[in-house]
Amino acid sequence: MPNARFKRIMLKVGGESLIGEREYGIDPRAAMTVAEQIKKIHDEGVEIAVVIGGGNIFRGMAGEKNGIDRATADYMGMLATVMNALALQDALEKIGVPTRVQSALEMPSVAERFIRRRAIRHMEKGRVVILAAGTGVPYVTTDTGASLHALELHCDVFMKATKVDGIYDKDPVQNPDAKRFKTLSFADAISMPGVEVMDTAALAMSSDNNMPVMVFELFKDNNLEKAIQGEDIGTYVSNDVKTEFA
Ligand code: UDP
Predict the structure, then answer these.
(1) Can you give the three-state secondary structure of 43-90, one letter per residue?
(2) pLDDT per position as a tens digit, 37-55
(3) Ligand 1 neighbourhood includes 84 CB (under 6 angstroms)
(4) Which domain holds residue 108?
(5) 142 belongs to a structural domain
(6) How far is the centre of ligand 1, averaged over its atoms, from the C-alpha of 59 (Å)?
């Protein structure tokens, strides 16, 4: 891994990455595609913690809109992430990548509870640690969980894999003239109207503690490998860069 820029990464994978051709839920083939991307960098010796979202099954805010108490709905969302974690574990182990699932909500029959030093040890031993249930508390999302875990597990970078190839100045789906940022300062990420990176709690935590964030498209050719090698893909958000378009 002579050129690799990052030794230990936090990879946030949105639940929607597991939908595949379906409208909802988990398509095992999509889980396998995600697993194959992860395997490539695992084979290069990168230490990997994965935080998986739950948006393909249940989001707390949607539940609240339908009349469920927000905290209850958020716990339901966290449970959704546990299902996704197990699906990703299954896919990774089928292609020979050793894993452990740790959950921020205790669920001893299916996952270890999150124990920071044990998670680090797993990564040192070459296991991919899949972190379920986000932070374990409501009113935030798995982005905040990923930000928090990236810091406490001493990851070099927080990589947010999405369906879009970076951060744009406005929604690229609605606006064909939207421009992608190559680099973005945290200050601009937080303050620029129209710029959506992740929830504010996650952004503020990453900014306050100098954890750089890379946003890129997971399903594009070897993007994860390229990101690890430090190639200019997606958008790099940090306190140390000036905002520039690609
Ligand atoms: N959630 C929560 N606390 C956390 C992480 C997640 O309450 O620390 C809940 C929240 O309701 C969220 C849902 O779990 O909407 C699923 O996570 P998220 O929306 O982040 O999934 P993604 O969009 O990444 O698929």
Answers:
(1) HCCCEEEEEECCCCCCCHHHHHHCCCCHHHHHHHHHHHHHHHHHHHHH
(2) 999 999 999 999 999 999 9
(3) no
(4) 8-245
(5) yes
(6) 6
The answer to the question of residue 3 being in a domain is no
67 Cα: distance to centroid of ligand 1 (angstroms): 17
**Model's pTM, two decimal places?**
0.97
> What are the pLDDT digits (tens) for 86-111?
999 999 999 999 999 999 999 999 99
Residue type at position 26: I
- Return the closest-CA partner of residue 93 out of 13, 28, 160: 28
Report CA(246)–ligand 1 centroid distance (Å).
30
CATH of the domain at 182: 3.40.1160.10
Q: How many domains does the chain have?
A: 1
User: How far from chain centre, in Å, is Cα 86?
Assistant: 16
- 104 belongs to a structural domain: yes
**Does 166 fall in a domain?**
yes
